Amino acid sequence: MRRSFFLKYISIFMILTSLARFFFGFMMINFFATAKTFGAVEPEMMRRALLALLLVLICAGAEMVCGFQGALNWAEPLLAGRCVRWGVAAVLSGLAGNGLQWLTGYGVSFVAWTTGVVMPGAYLLAAVLFFRRSKGGSG
Question: Can you give the pTM of this predicted structure?
Answer without folding.
Answer: 0.86
